[in-house]
Amino acid sequence: MLLQVLGTAAGGGIPQWNCACPGCSGARAHPHWRRRHASLAVQAGEDHWYLVNATPDIGDQIEARPGLQPGPGLRQTPVAGLVLTDAELDHTLGIARLREADSLQVLATAPVRQALLDRLHLGAVLGPYTSVSWRELPPRGAEPLDGGGGGGGGGGGASAVQISAIPVSGKRPRYAADAPDDDAWVIALRLYEPASGASAVYAPALAAWPDRLQQAAAEADVVIVDGTFWDDEEPRRTGISTRTATGMGHLPIDGPGGTAELLAPLAARCLYTHLNNTNPLVDPAAPEHKRLARLGIEVAQDGMVIEL
Ligand code: MLT
Ligand code: MN
Ligand code: ZN
Known about the structure:
The protein is built from nine helices and 14 strands. By secondary structure, it is of the alpha/beta class. The strands form two sheets. It has a seven-stranded mixed sheet with strand order 6-5-4-3-2-1-14. It has a seven-stranded mixed sheet with strand order 7-8-9-10-11-12-13. The termini are close together. Zinc ion binds next to helix 1.
């Protein structure tokens, strides 16, 4: 299985356009601190990639990775579709940027699709530009990703990767705060390659750590999860919010109930993504990197290629 890390920042990015916090100022002064919005590309077949989440940076993210650039046909693209982990704006604003596509396949859970259609009106808005096909990600069972190339029989091609949704929490985006509760508002993705038996878990938004996620993480080769905030007080201490990290729907990395103590015992290669610009990990020289390294945990970098 081949994964490409397209971005590793939380909403706003690093630097965020209206922010002069130490992380954002540092990123203006030191380009290697910069991070694009969190996203992952998954190879489903030869020249056939799915992007997990569509960020405001999606055009630049596609352009930055040779395997995702178009050609040789005039409008031939290896980007086969999108998989969404939630309906948050930092993971969905990029959908409209792909309106030049001949057609666009979007895999999402029912509440996420409903929010995009009923609240953001993406169906009505994109209809005149492209043909969007919405495929439901059921909260149980595995779905093959279309591998392209038509390998064997009609329909979609041989699929290298199966995808399953693990419901994580009922955290809704602010624009859908009054929408019905459902534990599939936010999911973790399990990516499984039957040919090799390899599996990966991708969960950039974690308000909780349910048993099914623990089970998938315990069996996985790679686990990439929500590293928005270092500790629970970070949003209040840095002055960006009156809420704690958990109050904002993000389990912190450090401290009791934090994700570091959940990841440390796993056999998998574990990495953090979706870093907020207030997170001390934004500074590559921060001592927090050494603390994670001692636990065997990494911080994902934009452009990382993960082969498993
Ligand atoms: C989040 O991860 O909590 C959201 O993306 C916040 C936001 O919409 O800015
Ligand atoms: Mn986010
Ligand atoms: Zn900032």
